[in-house]
Specification:
By secondary structure, this protein is an alpha/beta fold. Helix content is 38%, strand content 11%. The longest helix has 16 residues, at 181-196. The termini are close together.
Length: 197
C-alpha cells in the first residue's frame, strides 16, 4: 500500500497488568496525531488476534473521549468476545489446528480475572460501533474465533459501518503470517482495501 508502518511495543502481561496495554495504545495514538503530526484519518490501525481486540478497544476509547478516529481498521482473526458466546467455540474446536477453548479460557482468566467479560473494554464485540471507520475483517473458516469475526461484522453492519468480512476456506488463526498462497492473497486484499480509503 506504500504506507509507513509503526508497530506498537506495548507492555506485556504478567509484568504489566490490564489496562496497561490499552493505555499504551492510546499513548501511541496521541504520539502519532500529535508529535508525529499525522492526521487521524490518514492512520490505519491494524491488529491480529488479541491485537485486533486492542485495535477495536482503541477506536472505542477514542470515540468515547470525543477524539478523531482512524481512517480504517484492519482486523485479522480478531478476538472480540471474551464471553466465548459464539457457536464456533464448540463447533470448530476439533478442526482448529491453532487454538482450543481451554487456551482461550486460560488467557482471559490471566488477563482479566474477576472482571466483567461483557465489558466493551474486554469484549469490543459489545461496543456501540456507530461512527466507526471502514473496517476489513479477515478470518479462516477453521477457527474457533470465527464467530468473533462473523458477529463483529453483523454488529458493524447494523451500525451502518462500511465493513467487509473475508473468509478464507480451510484456514486457521492468523494464517496471513504463513508463507502460503492464501496468505499472499489476503495481504493483497488488505493493500487494495487501504488504497480505496
Amino acid at each position: 500500500a506504500g504506507a509507513s508502518v509503526y508497530t506498537l511495543d506495548y507492555r506485556l502481561w504478567p509484568q504489566h497488568a490490564y489496562p496497561s496495554q490499552q493505555n499504551d495504545a492510546m499513548d501511541a495514538w496521541t504520539y502519532l496525531t500529535g508529535t508525529a503530526g499525522y492526521a487521524a484519518d490518514h492512520i490505519f490501525v491494524v491488529g491480529d488476534s488479541a491485537g485486533g481486540n486492542l485495535a477495536l478497544v482503541l477506536c472505542n476509547r477514542l470515540k468515547t473521549a470525543g477524539r478523531k478516529l482512524p481512517g480504517a481498521l484492519i482486523l485479522m482473526s480478531p478476538w472480540t468476545d471474551m464471553t466465548m458466546s459464539g457457536q464456533s467455540y464448540t463447533e470448530r474446536a476439533e478442526i482448529d489446528p491453532m487454538l482450543t477453548p481451554e487456551y482461550i479460557e486460560a488467557v482471559r482468566l490471566a488477563y482479566a480475572a474477576g472482571r466483567d467479560y461483557r465489558s466493551s473494554d474486554l469484549s469490543p464485540l459489545f461496543a456501540d460501533f456507530t461512527g466507526f471507520p471502514p473496517t476489513l475483517i479477515q478470518v479462516g473458516d477453521h477457527e474457533i474465533l470465527y464467530s468473533d469475526s462473523e458477529q463483529l461484522y453483523q454488529a458493524m453492519k447494523r451500525a451502518n459501518v462500511p465493513c467487509r468480512l473475508q473468509v478464507s476456506e480451510g484456514m486457521w488463526h492468523v494464517f496471513q503470517m504463513f508463507p502460503i498462497r492464501k496468505a499472499s492473497v489476503a495481504i493483497e486484499n488488505i493493500a487494495r482495501f487501504l488504497l480505496e480509503q
